[in-house]
Design a protein that fits this description.
By secondary structure, the protein is mainly alpha-helical. It contains 13 helices and two strands. A hairpin with a 2-residue loop joins strand 1 and strand 2.
Length: 319
């Protein structure tokens, strides 16, 4: 489909390294969440990780000599919210606030394995939306590769998980599906956003998400006397790594190599999460994990079949 939006450059070794770091941090996030929610309410964990991530990225931005854009801009009709802030606020709601609250709520009613299956829909939505709205290619090989990745996630989680869907909350499953569409939309919007430098982009987006999500704390009872040090460390870890650092890495990867490339992380993160669970919590590593690894890697290889090329100077975005 023809459009006027410039396609992203082919992924380079540097882009793959960034994606690998995203996968590693994302995989550890499941263990951190499990530790955090043992004594701290999910809503507090969500708001806490957003504020920690926002403060961390704000410090990184200032240290690099970057600044947030002015919130208000003068127009012929008066003052209005600056275009860059309108994008960052919209992305914060769609990519952070909505899914960060949906997933903890939905996982009260369905198995985590089924939630993982639904999360695997995100790359499929992303490549479709990126084709229509971000000028990214959608070849048969890419479709086959992403479908193989989805199959790999099903193998990893166990086919019996699908059977459990009939006995699980339909509303919770619809909510999870909506959350994955939010993540996909976030990726494409990040690709289509004005050329904001990644540090400022990430800091502004997370700061918006933290402010917007904070009123949710008024709806719950907060008793800090039961919070453990380990749970607090889990929230801090979530804020610094999977929320803060990953926030800026995602923007850099999407701006350089595209939303479809970034979406591959959603097939690789479950593998890393299973490995992290085996190491940290001594969880049993099912032999099917190795079969899933093979299928997912084959799917990734097929979807990214073109030889890596150097990114064009015009496509590079300073961080």
């Amino acid at each position: 489909m023809a459009n006027n939006f410039k396609s992203p450059a082919d992924a380079t070794l540097y882009d793959w390294a960034l994606l690998g770091l995203v996968v590693a941090l994302g995989g550890f996030s499941f263990a951190m969440i499990r530790t955090a929610v043992e004594t701290i309410p999910p809503a507090v964990v969500t708001v806490g990780r957003l504020w920690i991530g926002a403060i961390f990225l704000y410090g990184v931005m200032i240290q690099a000599g970057r600044r947030l854009p002015p919130f208000l801009a003068a127009t012929k009709k008066g003052w209005s919210v600056h275009l860059e802030w309108r994008w960052m606020i919209a992305i914060s709601v769609i990519g952070y606030v909505a899914p960060f609250f949906i997933f903890p709520w939905a996982q009260q009613f369905i198995d985590s394995g089924l939630a993982g299956i639904y999360m695997a829909f995100m790359p499929i939505w992303t490549v479709g939306l990126a084709y229509f709205f971000a000028g990214e290619s959608l070849s048969p090989r890419k479709i086959i590769g992403f479908l193989l990745g989805f199959v790999g996630v099903i193998i990893l989680m166990g086919p019996e998980i699908i059977g459990n869907a009939a006995n699980s909350s339909v509303l919770a499953q619809i909510a999870l599906l909506a959350a994955t569409i939010c993540y996909a939309t976030y990726a494409v919007m990040t690709r289509r956003a004005p050329p904001i430098r990644p540090r400022a982009f990430a800091a502004g987006t997370l700061l918006s998400a933290a402010i917007i999500s904070t009123p949710a704390l008024l709806l719950i009872d907060i008793d800090t006397s039961n919070w453990s040090l380990l749970s607090l460390l889990g929230v801090i870890g979530l804020g610094l790594g999977p929320t803060g650092l990953v926030g800026i890495l995602l923007i850099i990867v999407i701006q350089r190599a595209g939303a479809g490339f970034m979406a591959l992380a959603n097939y690789l993160v479950p593998l890393w999460a299973v490995a992290a669970g085996a190491v940290i919590f001594n969880e049993r590593l099912n032999p099917s994990a190795f079969a899933a690894l093979a299928v997912i890697l084959i799917g990734v290889a097929i979807s990214q079949h073109s030889s890596p090329g150097k990114i064009k100077p015009a496509d590079q975005i300073k961080s």
